[in-house]
């Protein structure tokens, strides 16, 4: 697809009206020039981009009002990429002291990647066009089903009686209550760990042994559960309870080891001024 012409002939159009490049060392479509450069079969420094640009401008002017925006955009993308690539190739290939020159040298691979990306987008666009043209040749069936095929259709079994339908309709048409925002999380009451520990003393002294689930069964919120857990830790620090757990993350058993009378233990507790509250 290459020919040496001396002097170079002016740019011409293919029968389809597409732009054709005519240089002293290349003649053919602009896409072919891009393909040869991306495959390293042609040196970009040997391509006179200014002449290609002038020929393309003349080609667009010759089309008048029938010029193609897609073709112009395609040319600008490819020409800009080739111009960057040519600028990087013209730099010296030896040792580079300037960081800007080094960055241009490293950008050569990115420029080639941009060319390959452009080709990939173009191939995908062609594939989409082929799929669209194939889909335009397909038409849905616009006639009723033939009698010989109707017997093959299974009988519709809904499994819902009229009463069930009435309940579903009532649930759908029932007015929904207006949405409300709870404010319980804003004003949470404080829970006294000291008072909770006193309650647990009385419970454990009476039961002797209980699981943690039993001790928090009557809690109304997470805050109370945490307070009871902290109270158990306080009792453990006072050496009045023992913890037993057979398996990791298993059920926690709390055993009372203090005085049988919890009132005596409560009398020896810290004064009320040191009370700790949680919440």
Automatic annotation (TrEMBL):
* TM ranges: none
Keywords for this entry?
A: Chromosome partition
Would you kindly state one Gene Ontology biological process term found in this protein's UniProt entry?
Answer: chromosome segregation
The record ties this protein, via Pfam families, to: SMC_ScpA
**Stretches assigned to coiled coil:** none
What is the name attached to this protein's record? Segregation and condensation protein A
Q: Which organism is it from?
A: Actinokineospora spheciospongiae
């Amino acid at each position: 697809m290459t020919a040496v012409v001396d002097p170079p002939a002016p740019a011409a159009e293919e029968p389809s009206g597409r732009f054709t490049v005519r240089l002293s060392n290349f003649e053919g479509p602009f896409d072919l020039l891009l393909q040869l450069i991306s495959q390293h079969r042609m040196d970009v420094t040997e391509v006179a981009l200014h002449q290609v640009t002038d020929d393309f401008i003349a080609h667009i002017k010759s089309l008048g009002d029938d010029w193609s925006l897609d073709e112009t955009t395609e040319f600008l993308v490819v020409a800009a990429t080739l111009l960057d690539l040519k600028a990087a190739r013209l730099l010296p290939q030896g040792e580079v002291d300037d960081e800007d020159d080094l960055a241009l040298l490293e950008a050569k691979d990115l420029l080639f990647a941009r060319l390959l990306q452009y080709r990939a987008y173009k191939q995908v666009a062609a594939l989409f066009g082929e799929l669209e043209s194939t889909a335009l040749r397909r038409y849905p069936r616009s006639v009723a089903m033939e009698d010989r095929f109707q017997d093959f259709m299974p009988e519709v079994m809904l499994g819902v009686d009229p009463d069930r339908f009435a309940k579903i309709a009532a649930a759908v048409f029932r007015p929904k209550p207006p949405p409300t925002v709870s404010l319980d999380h804003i004003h949470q009451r404080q829970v006294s760990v000291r008072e909770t520990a006193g309650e647990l003393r009385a419970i454990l002294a009476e039961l002797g042994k209980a699981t943690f689930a039993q001790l928090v069964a009557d809690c109304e919120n997470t805050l109370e559960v945490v307070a009871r857990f902290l109270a158990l830790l306080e009792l453990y620090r006072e050496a009045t309870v023992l913890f037993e757990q057979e398996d990791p993350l298993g059920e926690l058993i709390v055993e009372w080891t203090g005085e049988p009378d919890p009132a005596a233990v409560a009398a020896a507790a810290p004064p009320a001024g040191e009370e700790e509250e949680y919440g």
